[in-house]
Amino acid sequence: MDKIHELERDVLGRQKYMNAAIEEGNSPIQQFFSGATIFVTGGGGFLGKQFIEKLLRACKIKKIYVLLRPKKGKSIQERLQFMLKDSVYDLVRRTQPNFADILEAMEGDISELNLGLSDKDYAKITDQVDFIVHMAATIRFDGPLRDATLTNVRGTRECVSLAKACKKLKCFTYVSTAFTHATQDRIETELKEQFYPCPVPPDQIIELAENESKKLEDITEE
Predict the structure, then answer these.
(1) What is the reported pTM?
(2) What is its EC number (predicted)?
């Protein structure tokens, strides 16, 4: 137990310098996000919650819109409240008890056209949002190819279309899985951080997913 307590004291000791730097509020990142309105997809996932917590704790954010869909009988408001009970928000909960006021759930679905957003919410995003952070994705390697295409490929296209319609957008950030190019022909090869040619044109596979679901089911089984 003594070693555990010693480790805990060491970690807390190092955090005080980080917290002091955050309180100064003059880092380039803090200044970049100061007063920003942000739209986030995938905010309920592991990485999404970490990202939102750090924004709330370290930056003076004006508003964060989180794309959520009703799930397992829970409304988007219920899902947001459940998400904010996560222990990852414990620190920001202590320092900023009203932090939830900055967050607003928007009903939608990354796999739908226009992200499943209502016209009102779509207009709100295009009028107000400074930053879009797109993290939503299906990461099932054994799931139907149609679902993966509509979510990961078409969903990203729809996010880019939304970003292009924004009147004051400063930055669009896309977070992708590290396994994007983990195809059999690349096993034991070095993958660099660069764009690789797509084996199938994205529009073609989207069209297959929209109109020829049986063909994609056959490909999935193979």
Answers:
(1) 0.84
(2) 1.2.1.84
